[in-house]
Amino acid sequence: MKRFITQHLRVMRVAIARIFNPPLAGLLNTLVIGIALSLPAGMYVLLQNAQGLVLQLSGIPQISVFMSLDSRTDDIEALRKSLSQNPAIDHLEFVPKDQALQQLKQSTGLADVIGGLEKNPLPDAFIVRPKAGTAEFLDKLRIEIAKLPKVELAQLDSAWAYKLEALLKFANLAVLILASLLSLALIAITFNTIRLQILTQRDEIEVSKLIGASDGFIRRPFLYFGALQGLLGGCTAYLIIFISLILLNHPLANLSQLYASQFSLNPLGLTDSLSLLVFSLYLGWLGAWLSVARHLNQIEPR
Amino acid sequence: MISLSQVHKRYPGGYEALSNVSFEVAQGEMAFLTGHSGAGKSTLLKLVAGIERPNSGSVLVNNQNVGVLKSSALPYLRRNLGIVFQDHKLLFDRNVFDNVMLPLQICGFDHKESAQRVRAALDKVGLLKREKANPIALSGGEQQRLCIARAIVNRPTILLADEPTGNLDADYASDIMTIFKSFHQVGVTLLISTHDTGVLQAHDKVRILNLKQGVLQSNSSTHSLS
Hints:
The complex is a heterodimer.
Chain A: H1 2-19, H2 23-58, E1 63-67, H3 73-85, E2 89-95, H4 97-108, H5 111-115, E3 125-130, H6 135-146, E4 151-156, H7 159-200, H8 202-210, H9 215-258, H10 270-295
Antiparallel strand pairs in A: 1-3, 1-4, 2-3
Chain B: E1 2-10, E2 16-25, E3 30-34, H1 41-49, E4 56-61, E5 64-65, H2 74-78, E6 81-84, H3 96-107, H4 111-124, H5 140-152, E7 158-162, H6 170-185, E8 189-194, E9 206-212, E10 215-223
Parallel strand pairs in B: 3-8, 3-9, 6-7, 7-8
Antiparallel strand pairs in B: 1-2, 1-4, 4-5, 9-10
Helix pairs in contact in B: 3-4, 3-5, 4-5
Protein backbone atom coordinates (compact mmCIF):
# COMPACT_ATOMS: atom_id res chain seq x y z
CA MET A 1 0.00 0.00 0.00
CA LYS A 2 2.81 2.37 0.95
CA ARG A 3 4.62 1.42 -2.24
CA PHE A 4 1.45 2.15 -4.21
CA ILE A 5 1.12 5.64 -2.71
CA THR A 6 4.82 6.39 -3.20
CA GLN A 7 4.55 5.45 -6.86
CA HIS A 8 1.51 7.59 -7.47
CA LEU A 9 2.99 10.59 -5.70
CA ARG A 10 6.11 10.27 -7.84
CA VAL A 11 4.03 10.05 -11.03
CA MET A 12 2.05 13.10 -9.89
CA ARG A 13 5.28 15.08 -9.47
CA VAL A 14 6.47 13.99 -12.91
CA ALA A 15 3.16 15.06 -14.47
CA ILE A 16 3.23 18.48 -12.78
CA ALA A 17 6.82 19.02 -13.89
CA ARG A 18 5.88 18.14 -17.48
CA ILE A 19 2.96 20.57 -17.59
CA PHE A 20 5.17 23.53 -16.70
CA ASN A 21 8.09 22.50 -18.84
CA PRO A 22 8.38 24.43 -21.08
CA PRO A 23 6.29 26.90 -19.08
CA LEU A 24 4.87 28.92 -21.98
CA ALA A 25 3.56 25.93 -23.94
CA GLY A 26 1.90 24.50 -20.83
CA LEU A 27 0.35 27.85 -19.99
CA LEU A 28 -0.97 28.32 -23.53
CA ASN A 29 -2.48 24.84 -23.55
CA THR A 30 -4.20 25.49 -20.24
CA LEU A 31 -5.48 28.80 -21.55
CA VAL A 32 -6.86 27.27 -24.76
CA ILE A 33 -8.70 24.60 -22.77
CA GLY A 34 -9.91 27.24 -20.30
CA ILE A 35 -11.34 29.44 -23.05
CA ALA A 36 -12.94 26.49 -24.82
CA LEU A 37 -14.66 25.47 -21.59
CA SER A 38 -15.58 28.98 -20.48
CA LEU A 39 -17.70 29.62 -23.58
CA PRO A 40 -20.42 27.03 -22.92
CA ALA A 41 -20.06 27.33 -19.15
CA GLY A 42 -20.37 31.13 -19.33
CA MET A 43 -23.43 30.91 -21.55
CA TYR A 44 -24.89 28.41 -19.12
CA VAL A 45 -24.41 30.91 -16.27
CA LEU A 46 -26.14 33.66 -18.27
CA LEU A 47 -29.04 31.32 -19.09
CA GLN A 48 -29.40 30.27 -15.47
CA ASN A 49 -29.63 33.92 -14.52
CA ALA A 50 -32.15 34.67 -17.27
CA GLN A 51 -34.27 31.74 -16.13
CA GLY A 52 -34.20 33.07 -12.59
CA LEU A 53 -35.31 36.45 -13.87
CA VAL A 54 -38.20 34.98 -15.83
CA LEU A 55 -39.40 33.06 -12.81
CA GLN A 56 -39.18 36.17 -10.69
CA LEU A 57 -41.10 38.28 -13.20
CA SER A 58 -43.84 35.84 -14.06
CA GLY A 59 -44.53 35.09 -10.40
CA ILE A 60 -47.86 33.37 -9.85
CA PRO A 61 -49.73 33.16 -13.14
CA GLN A 62 -53.19 34.64 -13.38
CA ILE A 63 -56.02 34.18 -15.84
CA SER A 64 -58.25 37.20 -16.43
CA VAL A 65 -61.77 36.13 -17.39
CA PHE A 66 -63.80 38.90 -19.07
CA MET A 67 -67.54 38.39 -19.35
CA SER A 68 -69.67 39.59 -22.21
CA LEU A 69 -71.16 43.05 -21.77
CA ASP A 70 -74.74 41.82 -21.64
CA SER A 71 -74.14 39.52 -18.63
CA ARG A 72 -76.61 39.79 -15.80
CA THR A 73 -76.23 39.08 -12.09
CA ASP A 74 -77.42 35.48 -12.38
CA ASP A 75 -74.96 34.85 -15.23
CA ILE A 76 -72.20 36.11 -12.96
CA GLU A 77 -73.32 33.82 -10.16
CA ALA A 78 -73.49 30.82 -12.53
CA LEU A 79 -69.95 31.48 -13.74
CA ARG A 80 -68.65 31.99 -10.19
CA LYS A 81 -70.19 28.66 -9.23
CA SER A 82 -68.70 26.72 -12.11
CA LEU A 83 -65.29 28.33 -11.65
CA SER A 84 -65.16 27.64 -7.92
CA GLN A 85 -66.03 24.00 -8.60
CA ASN A 86 -63.03 23.62 -10.93
CA PRO A 87 -60.35 21.65 -9.04
CA ALA A 88 -57.51 23.35 -10.98
CA ILE A 89 -58.37 26.76 -9.57
CA ASP A 90 -56.82 27.87 -6.32
CA HIS A 91 -58.28 31.31 -5.78
CA LEU A 92 -61.02 33.37 -7.35
CA GLU A 93 -61.65 37.12 -7.26
CA PHE A 94 -64.57 39.00 -8.80
CA VAL A 95 -63.99 42.50 -10.20
CA PRO A 96 -67.32 44.27 -10.97
CA LYS A 97 -67.25 46.60 -13.96
CA ASP A 98 -67.87 49.72 -11.83
CA GLN A 99 -64.87 48.94 -9.66
CA ALA A 100 -62.74 48.33 -12.73
CA LEU A 101 -63.77 51.72 -14.11
CA GLN A 102 -62.83 53.42 -10.84
CA GLN A 103 -59.42 51.74 -10.90
CA LEU A 104 -58.89 52.80 -14.48
CA LYS A 105 -59.76 56.42 -13.64
CA GLN A 106 -57.35 56.49 -10.72
CA SER A 107 -54.41 54.71 -12.26
CA THR A 108 -54.27 56.17 -15.76
CA GLY A 109 -55.25 59.79 -15.24
CA LEU A 110 -57.79 59.51 -18.03
CA ALA A 111 -60.58 60.63 -15.71
CA ASP A 112 -61.80 63.34 -18.13
CA VAL A 113 -62.00 61.05 -21.10
CA ILE A 114 -63.68 58.30 -19.11
CA GLY A 115 -66.03 60.76 -17.48
CA GLY A 116 -67.20 61.79 -20.93
CA LEU A 117 -68.34 58.28 -21.77
CA GLU A 118 -72.08 57.68 -21.84
CA LYS A 119 -71.87 54.28 -20.28
CA ASN A 120 -69.26 51.97 -18.74
CA PRO A 121 -67.42 50.18 -21.59
CA LEU A 122 -65.75 47.68 -19.28
CA PRO A 123 -67.06 44.16 -18.67
CA ASP A 124 -67.36 42.33 -15.39
CA ALA A 125 -64.33 40.18 -14.77
CA PHE A 126 -62.96 37.35 -12.66
CA ILE A 127 -59.30 37.06 -11.74
CA VAL A 128 -58.50 33.37 -11.49
CA ARG A 129 -55.36 32.14 -9.77
CA PRO A 130 -54.77 28.54 -10.88
CA LYS A 131 -52.82 25.96 -9.01
CA ALA A 132 -49.15 25.78 -10.01
CA GLY A 133 -48.50 23.88 -13.21
CA THR A 134 -46.77 23.83 -16.55
CA ALA A 135 -47.44 26.30 -19.33
CA GLU A 136 -49.37 23.60 -21.16
CA PHE A 137 -51.60 22.92 -18.16
CA LEU A 138 -52.37 26.63 -17.78
CA ASP A 139 -53.18 27.04 -21.44
CA LYS A 140 -55.58 24.08 -21.30
CA LEU A 141 -57.30 25.65 -18.30
CA ARG A 142 -57.58 28.97 -20.14
CA ILE A 143 -59.25 27.31 -23.14
CA GLU A 144 -61.60 25.43 -20.84
CA ILE A 145 -62.65 28.65 -19.12
CA ALA A 146 -63.06 30.47 -22.44
CA LYS A 147 -65.70 27.90 -23.46
CA LEU A 148 -67.92 28.58 -20.43
CA PRO A 149 -71.17 30.46 -21.17
CA LYS A 150 -71.07 34.25 -21.21
CA VAL A 151 -67.28 34.36 -21.19
CA GLU A 152 -66.05 36.79 -23.83
CA LEU A 153 -62.31 36.38 -23.33
CA ALA A 154 -59.96 34.46 -21.05
CA GLN A 155 -56.40 35.76 -20.98
CA LEU A 156 -53.32 34.16 -19.45
CA ASP A 157 -51.43 37.13 -17.99
CA SER A 158 -48.02 35.55 -17.92
CA ALA A 159 -48.18 34.06 -21.41
CA TRP A 160 -45.17 36.10 -22.51
CA ALA A 161 -43.09 34.69 -19.67
CA TYR A 162 -43.87 31.20 -20.81
CA LYS A 163 -42.92 32.08 -24.34
CA LEU A 164 -39.64 33.44 -23.03
CA GLU A 165 -39.12 30.27 -21.03
CA ALA A 166 -39.61 28.20 -24.16
CA LEU A 167 -37.06 30.39 -25.89
CA LEU A 168 -34.62 29.83 -23.04
CA LYS A 169 -35.12 26.09 -23.36
CA PHE A 170 -34.13 26.43 -26.98
CA ALA A 171 -31.06 28.42 -25.96
CA ASN A 172 -30.23 25.74 -23.39
CA LEU A 173 -30.15 23.17 -26.16
CA ALA A 174 -27.86 25.40 -28.20
CA VAL A 175 -25.48 25.66 -25.21
CA LEU A 176 -25.55 21.89 -24.85
CA ILE A 177 -24.55 21.42 -28.49
CA LEU A 178 -21.78 24.00 -28.11
CA ALA A 179 -20.58 22.30 -24.94
CA SER A 180 -20.44 18.92 -26.68
CA LEU A 181 -18.45 20.33 -29.59
CA LEU A 182 -15.97 22.13 -27.37
CA SER A 183 -15.61 19.04 -25.18
CA LEU A 184 -14.57 17.17 -28.29
CA ALA A 185 -12.09 19.97 -28.97
CA LEU A 186 -10.67 19.55 -25.47
CA ILE A 187 -10.27 15.81 -26.00
CA ALA A 188 -8.55 16.52 -29.32
CA ILE A 189 -6.16 19.04 -27.73
CA THR A 190 -5.16 16.57 -25.02
CA PHE A 191 -4.91 13.75 -27.54
CA ASN A 192 -2.43 15.73 -29.59
CA THR A 193 -0.41 17.01 -26.64
CA ILE A 194 0.00 13.48 -25.36
CA ARG A 195 0.92 12.23 -28.82
CA LEU A 196 3.75 14.75 -28.99
CA GLN A 197 4.86 13.81 -25.49
CA ILE A 198 4.94 10.13 -26.34
CA LEU A 199 7.09 10.93 -29.37
CA THR A 200 9.58 12.97 -27.35
CA GLN A 201 9.71 10.33 -24.61
CA ARG A 202 10.15 7.50 -27.04
CA ASP A 203 13.57 6.50 -25.66
CA GLU A 204 12.38 6.47 -22.09
CA ILE A 205 9.34 4.39 -22.99
CA GLU A 206 11.43 1.91 -24.95
CA VAL A 207 14.03 1.51 -22.20
CA SER A 208 11.36 1.25 -19.53
CA LYS A 209 9.66 -1.55 -21.46
CA LEU A 210 13.00 -3.34 -21.80
CA ILE A 211 13.72 -3.27 -18.10
CA GLY A 212 10.36 -4.53 -16.99
CA ALA A 213 7.90 -1.66 -16.89
CA SER A 214 4.28 -2.77 -17.17
CA ASP A 215 1.95 -0.94 -19.57
CA GLY A 216 0.23 0.62 -16.58
CA PHE A 217 3.50 2.08 -15.33
CA ILE A 218 4.21 3.66 -18.71
CA ARG A 219 0.65 4.88 -19.19
CA ARG A 220 0.25 6.45 -15.75
CA PRO A 221 2.25 9.70 -16.13
CA PHE A 222 0.44 10.49 -19.38
CA LEU A 223 -2.99 9.89 -17.85
CA TYR A 224 -2.08 12.03 -14.85
CA PHE A 225 -0.85 14.71 -17.19
CA GLY A 226 -4.09 14.72 -19.21
CA ALA A 227 -6.28 14.80 -16.14
CA LEU A 228 -4.21 17.54 -14.53
CA GLN A 229 -4.18 19.66 -17.66
CA GLY A 230 -7.96 19.26 -17.96
CA LEU A 231 -8.40 20.27 -14.33
CA LEU A 232 -6.20 23.34 -14.75
CA GLY A 233 -8.22 24.23 -17.87
CA GLY A 234 -11.40 23.89 -15.80
CA CYS A 235 -9.96 26.20 -13.12
CA THR A 236 -9.03 28.72 -15.83
CA ALA A 237 -12.57 28.56 -17.23
CA TYR A 238 -13.95 29.15 -13.74
CA LEU A 239 -11.72 32.19 -13.29
CA ILE A 240 -12.67 33.57 -16.71
CA ILE A 241 -16.37 33.31 -15.85
CA PHE A 242 -15.87 34.71 -12.34
CA ILE A 243 -13.98 37.78 -13.58
CA SER A 244 -16.36 38.34 -16.51
CA LEU A 245 -19.36 38.35 -14.16
CA ILE A 246 -17.71 40.91 -11.89
CA LEU A 247 -17.02 43.09 -14.92
CA LEU A 248 -20.59 42.69 -16.24
CA ASN A 249 -22.30 43.26 -12.91
CA HIS A 250 -21.27 46.89 -12.59
CA PRO A 251 -22.90 48.22 -15.78
CA LEU A 252 -25.80 45.86 -15.17
CA ALA A 253 -26.46 47.48 -11.79
CA ASN A 254 -26.70 50.88 -13.52
CA LEU A 255 -29.02 49.46 -16.14
CA SER A 256 -31.36 47.79 -13.68
CA GLN A 257 -31.48 50.99 -11.63
CA LEU A 258 -32.90 52.76 -14.68
CA TYR A 259 -35.70 50.20 -14.70
CA ALA A 260 -36.10 50.72 -10.95
CA SER A 261 -35.25 47.12 -10.18
CA GLN A 262 -32.47 45.21 -8.52
CA PHE A 263 -30.79 42.63 -10.68
CA SER A 264 -27.31 41.16 -10.67
CA LEU A 265 -25.72 38.09 -12.23
CA ASN A 266 -25.06 35.24 -9.84
CA PRO A 267 -21.83 33.27 -10.26
CA LEU A 268 -21.72 29.49 -10.73
CA GLY A 269 -23.16 27.59 -7.79
CA LEU A 270 -21.15 25.08 -5.79
CA THR A 271 -22.53 22.00 -7.57
CA ASP A 272 -22.09 23.56 -10.99
CA SER A 273 -18.52 24.67 -10.21
CA LEU A 274 -17.60 21.21 -9.01
CA SER A 275 -19.23 19.62 -12.06
CA LEU A 276 -17.21 21.93 -14.30
CA LEU A 277 -13.94 20.90 -12.63
CA VAL A 278 -14.73 17.19 -12.52
CA PHE A 279 -15.95 17.22 -16.12
CA SER A 280 -12.84 19.01 -17.40
CA LEU A 281 -10.62 16.61 -15.45
CA TYR A 282 -12.47 13.65 -16.93
CA LEU A 283 -12.23 15.01 -20.49
CA GLY A 284 -8.48 15.55 -20.12
CA TRP A 285 -8.07 12.03 -18.78
CA LEU A 286 -10.17 10.62 -21.64
CA GLY A 287 -8.13 12.45 -24.29
CA ALA A 288 -4.92 11.17 -22.73
CA TRP A 289 -6.27 7.64 -22.48
CA LEU A 290 -7.32 7.56 -26.14
CA SER A 291 -3.96 8.94 -27.21
CA VAL A 292 -1.98 6.49 -25.10
CA ALA A 293 -4.06 3.55 -26.28
CA ARG A 294 -3.50 4.64 -29.87
CA HIS A 295 0.22 5.48 -29.75
CA LEU A 296 1.89 3.50 -27.00
CA ASN A 297 1.88 0.07 -28.59
CA GLN A 298 3.48 1.55 -31.69
CA ILE A 299 6.65 1.74 -29.61
CA GLU A 300 8.01 -1.77 -29.32
CA PRO A 301 11.62 -2.28 -28.28
CA ARG A 302 13.88 -3.81 -30.93
CA MET B 1 18.45 -21.10 -15.60
CA ILE B 2 18.22 -20.71 -19.36
CA SER B 3 17.26 -23.55 -21.65
CA LEU B 4 16.72 -23.44 -25.40
CA SER B 5 15.37 -26.40 -27.30
CA GLN B 6 15.22 -26.68 -31.11
CA VAL B 7 14.79 -22.95 -31.54
CA HIS B 8 14.22 -21.49 -35.00
CA LYS B 9 14.00 -17.78 -35.64
CA ARG B 10 13.20 -16.42 -39.06
CA TYR B 11 12.80 -12.70 -39.65
CA PRO B 12 10.20 -11.33 -42.06
CA GLY B 13 11.75 -11.56 -45.50
CA GLY B 14 12.91 -15.11 -44.95
CA TYR B 15 16.28 -14.46 -43.29
CA GLU B 16 16.96 -17.36 -40.95
CA ALA B 17 18.77 -15.93 -37.92
CA LEU B 18 18.79 -19.07 -35.79
CA SER B 19 18.21 -22.67 -36.80
CA ASN B 20 17.72 -25.58 -34.50
CA VAL B 21 19.57 -24.14 -31.52
CA SER B 22 19.51 -26.15 -28.30
CA PHE B 23 21.54 -25.58 -25.17
CA GLU B 24 21.23 -25.11 -21.46
CA VAL B 25 22.93 -22.70 -19.08
CA ALA B 26 22.64 -23.90 -15.49
CA GLN B 27 21.92 -21.66 -12.56
CA GLY B 28 25.04 -19.74 -11.46
CA GLU B 29 26.89 -20.59 -14.65
CA MET B 30 28.82 -18.08 -16.76
CA ALA B 31 28.57 -18.68 -20.50
CA PHE B 32 29.97 -16.83 -23.49
CA LEU B 33 28.20 -16.66 -26.81
CA THR B 34 30.76 -16.26 -29.57
CA GLY B 35 30.65 -15.93 -33.33
CA HIS B 36 31.08 -13.33 -36.05
CA SER B 37 28.77 -10.42 -36.59
CA GLY B 38 25.50 -11.68 -37.99
CA ALA B 39 25.91 -15.13 -36.47
CA GLY B 40 22.71 -14.65 -34.44
CA LYS B 41 24.14 -13.75 -31.03
CA SER B 42 21.94 -10.67 -30.53
CA THR B 43 18.88 -12.51 -31.79
CA LEU B 44 19.49 -15.29 -29.30
CA LEU B 45 19.74 -12.82 -26.39
CA LYS B 46 16.58 -11.06 -27.60
CA LEU B 47 14.74 -14.38 -27.53
CA VAL B 48 15.83 -14.95 -23.94
CA ALA B 49 14.69 -11.46 -22.92
CA GLY B 50 11.36 -11.87 -24.71
CA ILE B 51 12.10 -8.98 -27.10
CA GLU B 52 11.68 -11.36 -30.02
CA ARG B 53 9.72 -14.59 -30.14
CA PRO B 54 10.93 -17.81 -31.76
CA ASN B 55 9.12 -19.26 -34.79
CA SER B 56 9.40 -22.70 -33.27
CA GLY B 57 11.05 -24.42 -30.33
CA SER B 58 10.99 -23.36 -26.73
CA VAL B 59 12.94 -20.78 -24.75
CA LEU B 60 12.78 -21.49 -21.02
CA VAL B 61 13.95 -18.86 -18.55
CA ASN B 62 13.51 -19.79 -14.88
CA ASN B 63 11.14 -22.54 -16.10
CA GLN B 64 8.90 -20.06 -17.91
CA ASN B 65 8.42 -20.51 -21.65
CA VAL B 66 9.26 -16.99 -22.86
CA GLY B 67 8.14 -17.68 -26.42
CA VAL B 68 4.50 -18.13 -25.48
CA LEU B 69 4.38 -15.72 -22.54
CA LYS B 70 1.56 -13.18 -22.63
CA SER B 71 2.70 -9.60 -23.31
CA SER B 72 1.28 -8.58 -19.96
CA ALA B 73 3.52 -11.11 -18.18
CA LEU B 74 6.72 -10.05 -19.95
CA PRO B 75 7.50 -7.09 -17.64
CA TYR B 76 7.62 -9.43 -14.63
CA LEU B 77 10.01 -11.77 -16.45
CA ARG B 78 12.28 -8.85 -17.35
CA ARG B 79 12.44 -7.66 -13.75
CA ASN B 80 14.37 -10.85 -12.95
CA LEU B 81 16.76 -10.24 -15.83
CA GLY B 82 19.52 -7.71 -16.04
CA ILE B 83 20.24 -6.69 -19.62
CA VAL B 84 23.38 -4.91 -20.79
CA PHE B 85 22.58 -3.53 -24.23
CA GLN B 86 24.98 -3.30 -27.12
CA ASP B 87 23.97 0.35 -27.67
CA HIS B 88 23.69 1.01 -23.91
CA LYS B 89 20.22 2.57 -24.22
CA LEU B 90 21.01 5.22 -21.61
CA LEU B 91 18.69 8.18 -21.14
CA PHE B 92 20.42 11.49 -21.72
CA ASP B 93 17.68 13.61 -20.19
CA ARG B 94 18.74 12.65 -16.65
CA ASN B 95 21.94 12.15 -14.70
CA VAL B 96 23.82 8.94 -13.97
CA PHE B 97 22.07 8.41 -10.65
CA ASP B 98 18.58 8.70 -12.14
CA ASN B 99 19.46 6.34 -14.98
CA VAL B 100 20.26 3.62 -12.49
CA MET B 101 17.21 4.59 -10.43
CA LEU B 102 14.76 3.78 -13.28
CA PRO B 103 14.48 -0.02 -12.74
CA LEU B 104 13.80 0.54 -9.04
CA GLN B 105 11.13 3.14 -9.80
CA ILE B 106 9.50 0.63 -12.11
CA CYS B 107 9.41 -1.93 -9.30
CA GLY B 108 8.13 0.71 -6.91
CA PHE B 109 10.86 0.81 -4.27
CA ASP B 110 10.71 3.69 -1.85
CA HIS B 111 13.18 6.46 -2.40
CA LYS B 112 15.50 5.90 0.55
CA GLU B 113 16.01 2.20 -0.06
CA SER B 114 16.50 2.69 -3.80
CA ALA B 115 19.05 5.47 -3.27
CA GLN B 116 21.15 3.06 -1.22
CA ARG B 117 20.88 0.38 -3.87
CA VAL B 118 21.76 2.79 -6.66
CA ARG B 119 24.91 3.94 -4.84
CA ALA B 120 25.89 0.32 -4.16
CA ALA B 121 25.51 -0.51 -7.86
CA LEU B 122 27.45 2.57 -8.96
CA ASP B 123 30.18 1.74 -6.46
CA LYS B 124 30.44 -1.76 -7.89
CA VAL B 125 31.19 -0.42 -11.38
CA GLY B 126 33.35 2.45 -10.10
CA LEU B 127 31.07 5.33 -11.05
CA LEU B 128 30.06 6.52 -7.59
CA LYS B 129 31.88 9.83 -8.02
CA ARG B 130 30.07 10.53 -11.32
CA GLU B 131 26.53 10.13 -10.06
CA LYS B 132 25.59 13.76 -10.83
CA ALA B 133 27.07 13.69 -14.34
CA ASN B 134 25.02 13.40 -17.50
CA PRO B 135 25.73 10.11 -19.28
CA ILE B 136 26.65 12.03 -22.41
CA ALA B 137 29.71 13.32 -20.56
CA LEU B 138 30.93 9.78 -19.88
CA SER B 139 33.47 7.91 -21.96
CA GLY B 140 32.45 4.79 -23.89
CA GLY B 141 33.78 2.51 -21.16
CA GLU B 142 32.02 4.50 -18.46
CA GLN B 143 28.75 4.39 -20.39
CA GLN B 144 29.11 0.63 -20.65
CA ARG B 145 29.69 0.39 -16.90
CA LEU B 146 26.69 2.63 -16.25
CA CYS B 147 24.59 0.26 -18.35
CA ILE B 148 25.88 -2.63 -16.22
CA ALA B 149 25.03 -0.74 -13.02
CA ARG B 150 21.48 -0.26 -14.28
CA ALA B 151 21.23 -3.95 -15.17
CA ILE B 152 22.30 -5.17 -11.73
CA VAL B 153 20.67 -2.59 -9.43
CA ASN B 154 17.57 -4.77 -9.28
CA ARG B 155 19.71 -7.75 -8.15
CA PRO B 156 18.63 -10.03 -11.00
CA THR B 157 19.35 -13.75 -10.96
CA ILE B 158 20.25 -13.72 -14.66
CA LEU B 159 22.42 -11.18 -16.45
CA LEU B 160 22.44 -10.92 -20.25
CA ALA B 161 25.10 -8.84 -21.95
CA ASP B 162 25.24 -8.12 -25.68
CA GLU B 163 28.77 -7.25 -26.81
CA PRO B 164 29.65 -5.52 -23.54
CA THR B 165 33.23 -4.98 -24.63
CA GLY B 166 32.40 -4.28 -28.26
CA ASN B 167 34.02 -0.92 -28.82
CA LEU B 168 36.35 -0.79 -25.85
CA ASP B 169 40.11 -1.02 -25.71
CA ALA B 170 41.72 -3.95 -23.94
CA ASP B 171 42.10 -2.29 -20.53
CA TYR B 172 38.47 -1.24 -20.30
CA ALA B 173 37.38 -4.63 -21.63
CA SER B 174 39.28 -6.50 -18.95
CA ASP B 175 37.82 -4.15 -16.27
CA ILE B 176 34.37 -5.09 -17.40
CA MET B 177 35.17 -8.80 -17.52
CA THR B 178 36.40 -8.53 -13.95
CA ILE B 179 33.08 -6.99 -12.94
CA PHE B 180 31.18 -9.83 -14.60
CA LYS B 181 33.38 -12.36 -12.88
CA SER B 182 32.52 -10.86 -9.52
CA PHE B 183 28.81 -11.34 -10.28
CA HIS B 184 29.54 -14.93 -11.26
CA GLN B 185 31.14 -15.44 -7.88
CA VAL B 186 27.99 -14.37 -6.05
CA GLY B 187 25.88 -16.85 -8.00
CA VAL B 188 24.40 -14.80 -10.84
CA THR B 189 23.77 -16.68 -14.09
CA LEU B 190 25.51 -14.85 -16.93
CA LEU B 191 25.10 -15.11 -20.69
CA ILE B 192 27.51 -12.80 -22.50
CA SER B 193 27.84 -12.42 -26.23
CA THR B 194 31.10 -11.31 -27.79
CA HIS B 195 32.83 -11.47 -31.16
CA ASP B 196 36.11 -10.69 -29.46
CA THR B 197 37.64 -13.98 -28.30
CA GLY B 198 40.61 -12.04 -26.95
CA VAL B 199 38.71 -11.11 -23.80
CA LEU B 200 38.17 -14.75 -23.02
CA GLN B 201 41.84 -15.52 -22.51
CA ALA B 202 41.72 -14.11 -19.03
CA HIS B 203 39.18 -16.77 -18.11
CA ASP B 204 40.91 -20.07 -18.44
CA LYS B 205 37.88 -22.23 -17.84
CA VAL B 206 34.70 -20.88 -19.37
CA ARG B 207 31.62 -22.18 -21.06
CA ILE B 208 31.61 -21.21 -24.73
CA LEU B 209 28.68 -21.41 -27.13
CA ASN B 210 29.90 -20.75 -30.66
CA LEU B 211 27.37 -19.68 -33.28
CA LYS B 212 27.97 -19.66 -37.00
CA GLN B 213 25.27 -18.37 -39.35
CA GLY B 214 22.56 -19.21 -36.86
CA VAL B 215 23.76 -22.73 -36.09
CA LEU B 216 25.34 -23.75 -32.81
CA GLN B 217 28.83 -25.05 -33.67
CA SER B 218 30.38 -26.02 -30.39
CA ASN B 219 29.01 -26.23 -26.90
CA SER B 220 31.94 -26.83 -24.63
CA SER B 221 31.58 -26.68 -20.92
CA THR B 222 35.23 -26.17 -20.10
CA HIS B 223 36.73 -24.75 -23.19
CA SER B 224 40.23 -23.51 -22.82
CA LEU B 225 41.75 -21.13 -25.31
CA SER B 226 45.39 -21.42 -25.91
